[in-house]
Write a structure and sequence with these properties.
alpha/beta; Alpha-D-Glucose-1,6-Bisphosphate, Chain A, domain 3; 4 domains; six-stranded mixed beta sheet; six-stranded antiparallel beta sheet; 21 strands; 38% helix; 20% strand; isomerase; A-D-PHexomutase_a/b/a-I/II/III; magnesium; metal-binding
């Protein structure tokens, strides 16, 4: 076994074009660390609907140049088999370790395969790449990013010509072509021949950002912005200047790209501590909002002043921002008469958007998790997901876009400010109109993926009869699919009793986590009942979380 591992590692060394990972692997071989070799050569990173994502390092179970070259070659073969020989592939990348190398390798492979390749001019937000695909008429796009994952990770996200991320069966088709690549020695990889784009694509994207705002809306909201060491800052500043908002106050320590993300444990605004510096800046300058983008700026987090919160600021949940933006678009005049008037969200997000859409006479669709599904809702006008993702301009960017979403939130805050009101006031209005839709999440990060598999097995074999005293009236195994959803590894429970509630349980598609999404709907008779309703909702959610953890054995 040890000799087999060493032989595999030496074969890998022979084709690895990266001196850094060659040296790393050579040290492991020399040390005779068969446990580490076993981890790196236990299989290959699987290409799926999230593309590739994993820890940087040598070996087929890590993200590195060999894995990326094979992925690019498989994608090129798939595109040619689909009749796109000679088509344009646009490639973007963030500022993580190796991102620029992976992007250039992709351009070289595409060029060598007879496709045309165009690189974005520098590290830019993922939404710019998603926009460029449609804007340039490309047959596909690649974004090298691991989004909000830890610094040790990188990833490879693939879009097809409609500007949406891949879904089955395209993912399986690409994976099969990658599997057929074999050694990369025979792949033509010229050192030139692709195009490096100028700023014209970014300028065209910025022109689209103007379109999400009403022509004469107020632009007075003052914002503190953090890029969380990612690539969002310059594009946010440019968009804000074009729109005429006051220039954002930057969290200087996090404003510039830094692949080590030195001020945060995880570069994700949802993670504890990630927003501490932004809140400190907010206490210093007193803005109307705090806005954070994740490192590739496709997500947007929003915080509001709150005297009851620790530190005086409260992060809004993604579901709250999703509802606010939906209500704002209705107020701006989205109508069922429009060619595209469907609101969409995923099954793990709050059902409140459905109530807002129904009250406005708009179409509504629930999809599987991820914008690869949300973006494909028929007649999409607006889509969001609880994990801080919002698509407010699907004709321009058919994916989540943290920059246009932030602009729309700032517009809404400005309009409310002119009325002497706040985003919190509008959330209260929505609760009175549609019921208080309170959400929470039970998220368990694991070292051993078998823990997740065991929890899913337990719940499938013995689903709970009740949670928090609410009867489970339906327990759906989503792996079998439903009338409206294709199969996915997940479970959905609907609960009834004193209140209606819903629970979704699923393994994360991008991180080693088991994620459980909880919602309870508490009727509200008027503003005076809001405080009691929120307290009761918190009690019910805490009880659901406790009972679900016990049922899952986590």
């Amino acid at each position: 076994m040890a000799q087999d591992l060493i032989a595999q590692a030496r074969a890998w060394l022979a084709e690895d074009p990266d001196a850094e990972t060659r040296d790393e692997l050579a040290r492991i071989i020399e040390a005779g660390d068969t446990a580490e070799l076993g981890a790196r050569f236990a299989g290959t990173l699987q290409f799926g609907t999230a593309g590739l994502r994993g820890e940087l390092g040598a070996g087929p179970m890590r993200m590195n140049r060999v894995v990326v070259v094979r992925a690019a070659a498989g994608l090129a073969a798939y595109l040619k088999a689909q009749g796109h020989a000679g088509g344009l592939v646009v490639i973007g990348y963030d500022a993580r370790h190796k991102s620029a190398d992976f992007a250039r390798d992709t351009a070289a492979v595409m060029t060598g395969a007879g496709l045309r390749a165009a690189l974005l001019p520098r590290p830019l937000p993922t939404p710019v790449l998603a926009f460029a695909i449609r804007h340039l008429g490309a047959v596909a796009g690649v974004e090298v990013t691991a989004s909000h994952n830890p610094p040790r990770d990188n990833g490879y996200k693939v879009y097809l010509g409609d500007g949406s991320q891949i879904v089955p069966p395209a993912d399986a088709g690409i994976a099969a072509e990658i599997e057929a690549v074999g050694s990369i020695h025979h792949l033509p990889r010229p050192e030139s021949g692709w195009e490096t784009l100028g700023d014209e694509v970014l300028e065209a994207y910025l022109e689209r950002t103007d379109a999400v705002l009403s022509p004469h809306s107020p632009r007075t909201a003052r914002v503190v912005h953090t890029a969380l060491h990612g690539v969002g800052k310059d594009v946010v500043l440019a968009a804000w200047e074009r729109a005429g908002f006051p220039a954002p106050v930057l969290v200087d320590e996090q404003a510039e790209p830094d692949p080590d993300f030195p001020t945060v444990a995880f570069p994700n605004p949802e993670e504890p501590g990630a927003m501490d510096l932004a809140f400190a800046k907010a206490r210093e300058v007193g803005p109307d909002l705090v806005v954070a983008n994740d490192p590739d700026a496709d997500r947007c987090a929003v915080a509001v002043p709150d005297d009851t919160a620790d530190g005086g600021w409260r992060m809004l949940r993604g579901d709250e921002v999703g509802a606010l933006l939906g209500a704002h678009l209705v107020h701006k005049g989205v109508s069922a008469k429009d060619a595209n008037s469907t609101f969409a969200t995923s099954i793990v997000s709050s059902s409140l958007l459905g109530r807002i859409a129904a009250a406005a006479g708009l179409g509504y669709e629930e999809t599987l998790t991820g914008f690869k599904w949300i973006s494909r809702a028929e007649g999409l006008r607006y889509g969001y997901e609880e994990a801080l993702g919002y698509c407010v301009d699907p004709d321009g960017v058919r994916d989540k876009d943290g920059i246009t979403a932030a602009l729309l939130v700032a517009e809404l805050a400005s309009e409310l400010k002119a009325q002497g009101r706040t985003l919190t006031d509008l959330l209260d209005d929505l609760a009175v109109a549609h019921g208080l839709h309170a959400t929470d999440q039970l998220s368990v990060r694991v070292e051993d993926l078998d823990v997740i598999a065991e929890a899913m097995r337990r719940l499938r074999e013995k689903p709970p009869a009740a949670l928090a005293g609410l009867r489970v009236v339906s327990a759906e195994d989503l792996s079998k699919g439903t009338e409206s959803l294709p199969p996915t590894d997940g479970l959905r429970y609907h609960l009834e009793g004193e209140y209606d509630a819903r629970v979704i349980v699923r393994p994360s598609g991008t991180e080693p986590k088991l994620k459980c999404y909880l919602e309870v709907v508490v009727p509200v008779g008027g503003p005076s009942e809001l405080s009691a309703a929120r307290a009761r909702a918190a009690e019910v959610l805490a009880a659901v979380k406790r009972d679900l953890a016990e049922a899952a054995g986590i």
